[in-house]
Design brief:
It is built from 15 helices and 17 strands. With 461 residues, the protein is an alpha/beta fold. The protein has a 7-stranded parallel beta sheet, sandwiched between helices. A 6-stranded parallel beta sheet has the order 14-13-12-15-16-17, sandwiched between helices. The longest helix is centred in the N-terminal third of the chain and has 18 residues. The chain is elongated and about 75 Å long.
Length: 461
C-alpha cells in the first residue's frame, strides 16, 4: 500500500485555509481519498484592535500587552487605541514598539473635575474611543475588538457595528481590597448587567476573578475564559544576577526560604514568619539551622504597604530568629528571578489572594512550593504533585518545610512537576494557544465547498 500526503492551501481575503489530501492505493484498485483538516490562519489583512485607557505601568497594562503580543505572534496586525501613552512612562521590560501600533483618542478629556466624577470621566473616555472607532475605523478594518474599559464602549460598538468584541474584566475596584474571592462580588448597575451579555467572549485573569464574575453577573450566559497572565516574557527571560548583589551579607551555603507578595495583611506574611520560627525549633541541630534564612520580599509603593512593612519589621525584631529574617521592600524583576532561582523552598502563605504571579514564577523555574489550601494556590497546584497544599497553620507549614529540606529528591520531583505544569498550562505558548482557540471559527459550508475539495471523494479506475 502506497501513501502520499499533499498539502494544499486556499486563500480568501482574510484567511488561509489549509487542508491535507491523502492518496492511497489498495488491492490493485486506485482509490483517491481527500481528508481535510480545515483551520484558519490569519493573513496580513487580519487586524485586532484593543481599546485600553492609559497605557502605563500598571498590572492591567501588562496584561493587555500580554494579549496584544499573543495576537501579534499568531500573525495578526495589532493596534492599541488608548487615551494616554508615553513611551518613557510605560512598561519597560516588555518590548512592543515593533509589534503593536498605538493610536490616541480622548487624551483631552480630564480624569476628573476637582477630584470628582472619576468614573464618569472614565466612561466618557471609553465612549469617545468607541465612537472614534465607529466613525473612523483604521485600515484594514478590524476583525476583532478587545476592550477592558467601561461597558459603554461595548454597548455602542454592538449597537452601531458588527465587530466581534471580547471584553476583559479586570475588577479594578476589587484589587485594592483584602476580601477573599470566595466571598466577594461586584455590584453592577442594571445597564452593566445587561450590556456585559453583549460580549462575544469575556476574559478574566484567574479562576478567582472568574468566580467573582459569576457571582456578580448570575444571569450571564457566556462562560468566561480564564487566561492567566504570562510571566515568561520580557526581562523574565534574562539571566539572573549574583544573590550577594541583593543580600550582601548572605553566607555561601545559605538555605533560602522565600515568600513574595504585597506588604498587606492579605499576604499573610505573619504565617511564614511563625512557620519559620517553628522550623528552627523542629530541627534540633544548630549547625543546620544556622544556615537557614527567610526572605520576605515585595514592593512598597502605597502608604498602607509602607505601614505594614514597618509593622512586620518591628514584629520580626522581637523574635529569636530575627537575625535570620531579611525584608526587601524593592523588588525589580531581575532581583525577583534571582531570589527564586537561589531559594530552596517557596512559601505562599496568602489565603485571600486572587493573583497568581508569584506561584507561576516559582513554577516556571521548577521550585517546590508550600502553600495554603485557601485562595488561588489550591486552584493552580495539585497537592503532592506540583506543590504542597496544606491548612494555613504554622506547625503544618513548618513540618512541610522540614520534609522538603531533608528530602532533596522530593524537592526535585515537586519542582519538575511544577515546571511541567507551567509549560503545558501557563506559559506564553499556552497563552497564545488559548487566544487562538477563541479566534477559531468553522468555515461556512458554501465557502468550504468552493475553497476546498469535499471531505471524502473516491475515484476508481
Amino acid at each position: 500500500m502506497g501513501l502520499t500526503f499533499v498539502k494544499s492551501t486556499c486563500q480568501n481575503a482574510h484567511f488561509n485555509t489549509v487542508f491535507h489530501v491523502k492518496f492511497s492505493q489498495m488491492d490493485g484498485e486506485q482509490n483517491t481519498e481527500i481528508e481535510t483538516h480545515i483551520f484558519e490562519r490569519p493573513t496580513d489583512q487580519s487586524h485586532v484592535l484593543i481599546i485600553h485607557e492609559k497605557l502605563m505601568k500598571r498590572k492591567t497594562d501588562r496584561y493587555i500587552l500580554n494579549i496584544a503580543l499573543a495576537y501579534h505572534k499568531l500573525g495578526y496586525k495589532v493596534t492599541i487605541l488608548t487615551s494616554q501613552y508615553d513611551k518613557h512612562d510605560c512598561i519597560g521590560d516588555v518590548k512592543f514598539a515593533d509589534s503593536v501600533s498605538v493610536l490616541y483618542s480622548g487624551w483631552w478629556i480630564p480624569r476628573s473635575f476637582l477630584g470628582l466624577f472619576r468614573s464618569n470621566m472614565s466612561a466618557f473616555k471609553a465612549a469617545w474611543m468607541a465612537f472614534r472607532l465607529i466613525c473612523f475605523p483604521p485600515e484594514p478594518k478590524p476583525e476583532l475588538v478587545v476592550l477592558d474599559v467601561s461597558l459603554f464602549a461595548l454597548y455602542f460598538l454592538k449597537l452601531f457595528t458588527k465587530y466581534k468584541v471580547f471584553y476583559v474584566e479586570t475588577f479594578l475596584e476589587l484589587k485594592n481590597t483584602d476580601a477573599c474571592y470566595e466571598h466577594s462580588k461586584n455590584n453592577p448597575t442594571l445597564l452593566e448587567a445587561k450590556w456585559v451579555k453583549l460580549a462575544d467572549e469575556i476574559i478574566v485573569e484567574t479562576i478567582g476573578f472568574c468566580e467573582i464574575l459569576k457571582k456578580s453577573y448570575p444571569s450571564l450566559n457566556v462562560k468566561p475564559k480564564v487566561l492567566y497572565p504570562s510571566i515568561d516574557i520580557g526581562l523574565w527571560n534574562e539571566p539572573g544576577i549574583k544573590i550577594h548583589r541583593i543580600i550582601p551579607d548572605l553566607m555561601d551555603n545559605t538555605v533560602l526560604f522565600l515568600t513574595i507578595g504585597k506588604f498587606k495583611r492579605s499576604s499573610n506574611f505573619k504565617l511564614a514568619l511563625d512557620a519559620f520560627e517553628l522550623l528552627l525549633e523542629v530541627i534540633d541541630d544548630k549547625t543546620v539551622t544556622k544556615r537557614f534564612q527567610l526572605v520576605i520580599a515585595g514592593n512598597c509603593k502605597t502608604l498602607e504597604e509602607k505601614f505594614h512593612y514597618n509593622e512586620m519589621m518591628a514584629a520580626a525584631k522581637q523574635r529569636i530568629c530575627a537575625s535570620q529574617v531579611t525584608f526587601l521592600k524593592q523588588l525589580p524583576i531581575v532581583h525577583e528571578k534571582t531570589l527564586i532561582m537561589e531559594s530552596t523552598v517557596m512559601i505562599h502563605p496568602a489565603k485571600n489572594d486572587v493573583h497568581s504571579d508569584f506561584l507561576l514564577k516559582a513554577m516556571s523555574l521548577g521550585k517546590p512550593i508550600v502553600a495554603t489550601n485557601k485562595g488561588i494556590a489550591s486552584k493552580i497546584l495539585v497537592h503532592r504533585l506540583s506543590g504542597v497544599i496544606i491548612d494555613p497553620e504554622p506547625r503544618m507549614f513548618a513540618i512541610a518545610m522540614k520534609k522538603l529540606i531533608v528530602s532533596p529528591h522530593l524537592q526535585v520531583f515537586l519542582g519538575d512537576m511544577a515546571r511541567d505544569t507551567f509549560d503545558k498550562s501557563y506559559s506564553f505558548e499556552s497563552f497564545c494557544s488559548k487566544v487562538n482557540q477563541m479566534m477559531k471559527r468553522p468555515l461556512l459550508k458554501d465557502s468550504a465547498s468552493t475553497l476546498c475539495p469535499s471531505e471524502s471523494v473516491k475515484t476508481r479506475n
